[in-house]
Write a structure and sequence with these properties.
arsenical resistance; Rossmann fold; Arsenate reductase (Thioredoxin); single chain; alpha/beta; about 15% strand; about 140 residues; 4 strands; 5 helices; Ptyr_pPase
Length: about 140
């Protein structure tokens, strides 16, 4: 029996930090079992701290770019993960057939945007990705 990869779409407001981290971890831990993408309502450059904290854990995202939500990708996803509360009002409605997941990860770049805050968000997102994989029975490649 052939199993198809699970399509995950990670969304937040700007796609410059949290959703980029989630996409990177999903690809890292999911391998060929997932197709992971991320996007935001707006785009901005991927924040240098985002690239730096992922490099600290051995994941290079320096080539990633910020993307806006693509409705084709949205509708083809098996799971939509919203990483912030603000998306609830502004995000397209997730159809019944698609699993809708809400993670309220505080924006580490909103206040002072200190490196330690980005690290804390990275670690929280990592745990969320692993937990999501367990719920969906996706093997976690350590």
């Amino acid at each position: 029996m052939e199993t198809r990869p699970v399509r995950l779409y990670f969304l937040c407001i700007q796609n410059r930090c949290r959703s980029q981290i989630a996409e990177a971890y999903a690809k890292h831990y999911g391998g060929e079992n997932v197709i992971a993408e991320s996007a935001g309502l707006e785009t901005g450059d991927v924040h240098p701290y985002t690239i730096e904290v992922m490099k600290e854990v051995g994941i290079d995202i320096s080539h990633e770019i910020s993307k806006t939500i693509d409705m084709k990708t949205f509708m083809q996803s098996n799971v939509i993960v919203k990483l912030c509360e603000q998306l609830n009002e502004k995000c397209p409605v997730v159809p019944f057939a698609i699993k809708n997941v809400q993670w309220n990860v505080a924006d580490p770049l909103a206040q002072q945007g200190r490196l330690e805050e980005v690290r804390a968000a990275r670690d929280e997102i990592r745990l969320n990705v692993i937990e999501l994989f367990r719920e969906l029975n996706i093997p976690v490649n350590e």
